Amino acid sequence: MWRPGAFFPNSAMPMSNTATLPTERRAAGFAITPEALRLLVAMAVLALMWISLRPFGAGGVSEGGETDFAREGMLISQIGYSAMAAVVLATVMTLVDRRLIARFVSVGWLAMFAIVGLSAFTGEADGVWRSVAFSLIVTALAGAVTLLPATARDFETALKTVSLVLLALCYGGLVVDPVSSIHQAFDLEAQHAGLWRGVFFHKNIAGPVMIMIGFGGIFLMRRRHFAAGTLIAALAFLFAFNAGSKTALALAPLVVAIVLVPALFGLRLVAAIGAVVAIAGAHALTVGTVFVPAFDAVLRTFSETTTFTGRTAIWDFAGDYVLARPWTGFGFDGFWGTPLLLATEQPFDRAWDPRGIVHGHNGFFDIVLFFGLPGLFMLIWLTVFAPAIDYVRAGRQTGNGPLADFFFMVIVFAVLTAALESFFFRRADPIWLTMIMALAGLRLCARMPLRS
Known about the structure:
The protein is mainly alpha-helical. The protein has 20 helices and no strands.
């Protein structure tokens, strides 16, 4: 997919990148080529990220209980993702150009991985070391997706194929297994009855993932896969609409306006600046309103009574805990749902009891609770500022524009979504994994041209 040789003009490309003689091509006609193997592995990883090892598993929650469902799903995911990680590692080390791997490695992400790893010492959750290891393995696995396809055409094939399979499963499930594919009145959250979730556990996962896949459809249309791209975009956006994820539906056109419209006119610097401003504004006017009165005053000029469905009570409740451990945090998964939190007294006048929730409904807020200020500052750099810089640089690489636009749209959309949802380092969460794929792909887009 990438041409590292363009940066090493005096170095020979690997044997797999050279032309094959006609006689050799005929002899290997029935063999699986290294390029084909890399494509198959890339599609397998994408399918694992989006479809998971337990598609339609949400239908069993009301029968077996949420705890049993989560425990069983965690075990299956740990085994499946670990096996896939071993396959990907073997494929990358044997079939991918070592110079490409060197360009792929990021000092910033190595530092972030170290912060996450060290947080296991401060975490008190059961099985914290296992959770940290699994999260880091899955994150690295998602990032490696962009290393696997041998050419840009192969990446497009993987994206198109897996997107169509996912959409077929989600729409087919509405007919074949509606109890699992559609939220029901007897589910744990009866207020979501009738909303689509497809193969996913919850409509708040289905909506954002479908928006990201819709962006992929737009990318495929720009790369001359017009029929498939149009079909993917239309079906994905329609599914997101019926998933009823209001945040995702509101952000999708905003991201198109911020990123894609300027990019079509070659104004990627304008798009990068607009994205950073939009991200800063979104977080300032959500979680920031609880801690900065000036931000709250601005918000109240637009909406006098909004609490973001009770989220302000959550942020206000946990704010004092941030100050208790500002540099180390409470460790990976070391706050929500822990005995420390459950033993806290609940004021009678609070609109929502935050002690029973599973996350803080803001990605960066949870990061500072888990990993402290070092983790927060590092993740802000890696997910906001570094991608903006990479995006501007990627526009200067011949042929990288449409792919960089796709990756940057996914990143901006995910970080904006994180203003009201929390998915950073949430192991097998498809929103997080798709964002990681885009971050890794954009990094490579900024450093080397594509192989067509």
